[in-house]
Amino acid sequence: MHGDKKNLPLVALVGRPNVGKSTLFNRLVGRRMALVHDQPGMTRDRKEAFADFMGLSFRVIDTPGLVDPDSQDISKELSEGMRQQTLEAIKASRVVLFVIDGISGCTPYDKELVKFLRQQNKPIILLVNKCEGKHGIQGISDAASLGLGEPLPISAEHGQGMSDLEVLIRPFVEDPNAPEEEPDDSKRPLNLAIMGRPNVGKSTLVNTLLGEKRQLTADIPGVTRDAITLTWEFEGHPIQLVDTAGIRRRSRVQESVEKLAVGDAEKTLRFADVVVLVIDGSIDPDELIEKQDLILASQVIEEGRALVLAINKWDKVLKKEKVLKHLREQLDVHFAQAKGIACVPISALKEHNVGPLMKAVLKAEKNWNRRLPTAELNRWLEFKIDGHPAPIVAGKRIRPKYITQVKARPPTFVVFTTKAGDVPESYKRYLVNGLRDDFDLLGIPIRITFKSSKNPYAP
After folding, report:
1. Average pLDDT of 104-130?
2. Mean pLDDT across the stretch 399-411?
3. Confidence check: pLDDT of 303 > 80
4. Which residues make beta-bridge pairs with 233?
5. In 3D, which of 380, 396, 364 has the Cα closest to residue 388?
6. 428 with 448: CB under 8 angstroms?
7. Alpha carbons 267 and 349: distance in angstroms, whole number
8. What is the pLDDT of residue 200?
9. Same topology for domains 190-368 and 374-452, yes or no?
10. Phi, psi (deg, nearest 5) at residue 95
11. pLDDT higher at 214 or 167
12. DSSP assignment, residue 243?
């Protein structure tokens, strides 16, 4: 991912002793490296490690606790040495995570530390730790008065609030001008599920995909005892058929694939990247998408999976153009949040168009895995705002300032803006449709959330 870890951006943890910095350090690093104990001052020297935190790569430094000068626990000489260690860490850092204790709240010395941190002219993210359960109310209330922006309640010990922390850290550890590397998924099989109502041709399609002309390699047990996968290749791409109903050998494909109906959909989707929903194209066009199809498709999209429609028995369809038009209209009405779903006419029995179907699957999976460069996203956001400014609410215009993609599979974005709670659904749809059209993210769910924040690059 990164050739030289020493050049990764640095994140500094700062706070008085015993607020949970070492526990948070261990959480970010992903393993127990810093000593954790109730005694103040357990961290005497800077401890630095490489963090691969929820897809973000950076260095994190656990600073010595900045001890209250009036404390009798540690000598004045040692206290000054710890302060100097912390100052050096802050100067080298890209962003400071200032941690306070959510249970005891802010002490007078926490407020002194805020003055000290402001003098260093570094961006600060304010964390209120130990907020598990109903704890932390006092700390959150106190933190809000520090003037460092909205505090983030977390529990480093229990892992609560980590996804929100990832969103706040991301702008500082990503280089917006650097080309972003796509993860190398070339060796990871694409997990494919075949779904649909009974008797639409799912079994025939599976038999065609796994036929003698395919490169069937092995029966591989899945990640749970009742999940079985069959692996083959399509044009050099490893494909894994996911069947939680339990396909064990080709002679039983016909029987077991029929079990992939609505009742098994939720379990099946846990293992799938892309879902092919098979529809019988030979029935009356007005009945082409029935309630059960809509339920299955909705489950796929709500789970955030990529969806491709296979219109089977196409050799029996007489009014082909009418069927395609009707199907597209139904999809646009019911699944506006995943516009552009690929619809591929096939005949599984005659092996017609199975190749184009699999190409549509590969394209859907590629879109599902897409990561967009931060700099390009923010140029796009500026263009979209110029073309259609956000609305005015209570006399003040909503001002989106910054956008970043926080994850792929499916593409998920966060927009930092003023008045985040007032962004209307119509403007959210405007941005989502813009992302889909301008970046060719067709046929997959796109998720977008809004957070109130100052410019992430401002202190």
Report:
1. 87
2. 84
3. yes
4. 238
5. 380
6. yes
7. 28
8. 83
9. no
10. -155, 150
11. 167
12. E
Neighbouring C-beta atoms of residue 49, cutoff 10 Å? 17
Alpha-carbon distance 69 to 40, whole Å? 13
The residues pairing with 13 across neighbouring beta strands, listed in sequence order, are 62, 97
The more confidently predicted of residues 165 and 196 is 165
Residue 250 and residue 208 in contact, taking contact as beta carbons nearer than 8 Å: no
| Contact assessment for residue 97 and residue 127, using Cβ atoms and an 8 Å cutoff | yes
Closest Cα partner for 388 from 429, 419, 416? 429
154 CB-near residues (< 8 Å, 6+ apart): 24, 127, 128, 129, 131, 160, 161, 162, 164, 165
Q: How far apart are the first and last CA of the chain?
A: 29
Three-class secondary structure of residue 9 per DSSP: coil
| Cβ partners under 8 Å of residue 395, min gap 6 | none
Q: How many Å apart are CA 450 and CA 423, to the nearest integer?
A: 8
* Burial class of residue 184 (count of CB atoms within 10 Å of its CB; 0-12, 13-18, 19+): exposed
**Mean confidence (pLDDT) of the chain:** 76
Task: Give residue for tokens 């490489």.
Answer: 50
What does the domain layout of the chain look like in residue ranges? 5-173, 190-368, 374-452
Q: pLDDT tier at 72 (50, 70, 90 boundaries)?
A: very low
Please tell me the CATH code under which domain 190-368 is placed: 3.40.50.300
> According to the CATH classification, is domain 374-452 in 3.30.300.20?
yes
| Contact (Cβ atoms closer than 8 angstroms) between residue 277 and residue 293 | yes
**Would you identify the CATH topology of the domain 5-173?**
Rossmann fold (3.40.50)
Q: Which range among 135-139, 230-234, 360-364, 419-423 has the greatest average pLDDT?
A: 360-364
Query: Tens digits of per-residue pLDDT, 232-258?
Result: 888 888 888 875 443 333 444 444 433
